[in-house]
Design goal:
Low-confidence stretches: none
Largest sheet: 7 strands, mixed
Number of domains: 2
Number of strands: 17
Structural class: alpha/beta
CATH class of the largest domain: Alpha Beta
Distance between the termini: 21 Å
Radius of gyration: 25 Å
Number of helices: 17
Length: 474
């Protein structure tokens, strides 16, 4: 039944926004031009409210809804993709909303947002890469300061991304900078309960979402946005206020720890940070650029097929595949890996993992890539994500030349063993640490830490993760 509700809910949203667009477009011409943006926002939020009621989602308001007699910054946690609609519905569509780039949303939402009171912003490297036309953070803050000084109010989600595993992400400093620069108070809110209603992408269970508003938080008036310490302190004050109103299940466990430097987060690369298999794509890249003979790659892909049908062990497959690099100068290999990474990799990175890496980095945790990817390629992943270290497959070399063999393939139990050794060397408590991976072979790594997360897991790992009540990120 929950699956049917989810399909009905998604279908209703799509049909309402797709077929409602021309109707609202015509109606908007009868609205004074300065009010049209708010009219579009109000209509969109109202449709979401009606559809939520139809599927059994109830909204409970706790605390006093702030008035818009003077400008305010409405800021809170980002529990789901519905949050902006739900909050703006309470304010009759009168809030300017800071959003992701419009093209990041599925059709038919982008044209609605473009006409509504929405201000898109580049949140991270993914947005900078795919949506160069969208405003950068510094410029958008200046735009919002202008809107606030004109008497408008703004809705902002300081996390930047919504909580896919039901736990709070770290707060960016933008909300604090905006408040200080415009001398505008922040009205904090929390949304809770949606993680029990919107279960994954394919299930919806009727229930109550609670929206709690707190007291206004006024910015320090004797400092400027260039005072990094003041900005961080004010950001922390806003975040801590939100945390106090959240259920314990929505608060990351590491926030309760006193020694953050004893915690590490281990990340797999292929199918976790990278959408696919980077080494297979690297071999295809070499073929396209005529760097290796076609016959060599044909053999490699034959071995890959044999592995998939169970005729070849994975370790043997990798040992054979690395023979392609026999006799290569390490400097040449490193340079080729760099070219491949710059040209192909950023477009295939799983951007939904970025907030999780940043969460740990902002808390001062060690972040470590643990991967089967060979070291000359893996190091560019490390540089891109700015992680503490990388544990990768190491290639054998003699007098600066690759031998076509490897010392240890970083896979399965080897990953767990290497992560454990790294933790012991650096004084890390694995029982308080985290790991993110996708494959059944990563079970051993995930089992070593106190807080494992299966990322876009293959079926066998999904079954294990559900059985053990691990976090699952789809």
């Amino acid at each position: 039944m929950d699956f049917i509700r989810a399909v009905f809910f998604s279908g209703s949203l799509f049909l309402s926004f797709a077929f409602g667009y021309p109707i609202v477009l015509v109606a908007s011409f009868f609205i004074p031009k300065p009010e049209r943006k708010f009219f579009w926002t109000k209509m969109g939020a109202g449709m979401v409210r009606v559809i939520c009621k139809m599927v059994g989602i109830r909204i409970k308001l706790v605390g006093q809804l702030p008035t818009l007699d003077s400008p305010i910054l409405v800021a809170g946690n980002h529990a789901s993709a519905l949050d902006g609609f739900l909050i703006n519905d309470l304010f009759k569509g009168r809030l300017y909303a800071l959003t992701a780039p419009f093209r990041d949303f599925p059709f038919p939402f982008p044209p609605w947002f473009a006409r509504g009171a929405c201000i898109p912003v580049q949140r991270d490297w993914h947005d900078e890469l795919l949506y160069p036309e969208v405003g950068k953070r510094r410029g958008v803050i200046q735009t919002l300061v202008g809107l606030l000084k004109e008497g408008n109010s703004v809705l902002i989600f300081p996390e930047g991304h919504y909580e896919r595993t039901g736990e709070l992400h770290y707060f960016h400093t933008g909300v604090a900078r905006l408040s200080i620069a415009s001398s505008t108070p922040v009205c904090p809110f929390t949304i809770s309960g949606l993680d029990k209603i919107l279960i994954g992408s394919m299930a919806l269970h009727p229930g109550t979402a609670t929206i709690t508003f707190g007291q206004k938080i006024h910015p320090p008036y004797d400092v400027g946005v260039n005072s990094k310490e003041a900005v961080l302190q004010f950001r922390d004050k806003i975040q801590n206020t939100v945390i106090k109103s959240l259920p314990l299940r929505n608060i990351p466990s590491y926030l309760k720890e006193k020694q953050q430097d004893k915690i590490a987060a281990f990340f797999d690369i292929d199918r976790t940070l990278y959408l696919g298999y980077s080494q297979q794509d690297f071999l295809k890249y070499l073929l396209e650029h005529h760097v290796v003979p076609f016959s060599e790659l044909v053999k490699t892909f034959e071995w890959i097929l044999e592995e998939k049908i169970g005729m070849l062990e994975h370790q043997e497959l990798m040992n054979r595949a690395y023979e392609v690099f026999n006799g290569w100068d390490m400097e040449r290999l490193t340079k080729t890996c760099k070219q491949f990474f710059d040209e192909r990799v950023p477009h295939k990175l799983f951007d939904k993992m970025t907030p999780y890496i940043k969460d740990h980095q902002e808390q001062g945790h060690a972040t470590v890539l643990v991967t089967e990817v060979v070291e000359p390629l893996g190091k560019y992943f490390r540089e891109f994500f700015e992680t503490t270290d990388i544990i990768a497959t190491r290639m054998c070399q003699k007098k600066g030349l690759c031998t076509g063999s490897v010392k240890v393939i970083m896979c399965g139990k080897e990953k767990a063993k290497a992560a454990k050794q790294w933790a012991e060397k650096h004084g890390i408590d694995l029982s308080k640490s985290y790991a993110y991976a996708d494959s059944p072979s990563d079970f051993y790594l995930l089992h070593e830490v106190g807080f494992p997360t299966a990322v876009r897991p293959k079926h066998a790992l999904l079954v294990e993760a559900q059985k053990r009540n691990w976090k699952i990120l789809e």
